Amino acid sequence: MSEIESTNPEPLRKREFLPGRILRSLWLVFFAAYVVGMVLCLCGDFARQQGWGRSQPQANKP
């Protein structure tokens, strides 16, 4: 009985801790993707204003 009591809490703790880790990692991935998307959009707007975009030379051609 003592062996079962000593070995049981560890898997239960891992089972309770795992969803928290998964949610935290998913939130971090979502937040990182959001930040990267915002930075890329801002950089794209800035590049378009500066004329660095790929579509700029094609648009200037008659």
Description:
The chain is mainly alpha-helical and 62 residues long. It has one domain (2-60). Helices cover 87% and strands 0% of the residues. The chain has helices at 2-7, 9-50, 55-60. The N and C termini lie far apart (86 Å). The model has no long low-confidence stretch (mean pLDDT 73).
Keywords, separated by commas or semicolons:
3 helices; 62 residues; mainly alpha
Gist of the model:
The chain is built from three helices and no strands. The chain has 62 residues and is mainly α.
Topology pattern, helix = H, strand = E: HHH
Quaternary structure of the protein: single chain
Radius of gyration: 25 Å
Number of helices: 3
As residue ranges, the low-confidence spans are: none
Number of domains: 1
Main sheet: strands, sense, barrel: none
Please count the beta strands (DSSP E, at least 2 residues each). 0
Percentage of residues in helical conformation: over 70%
Shape: rod-shaped
- Beta-strand percentage range: under 5%
Q: Give the end-to-end Cα distance, rounded to a whole number of Å.
A: 86 Å
Question: Which structural category fits the helices and strands?
Answer: mainly alpha
Mean pLDDT equals: 73
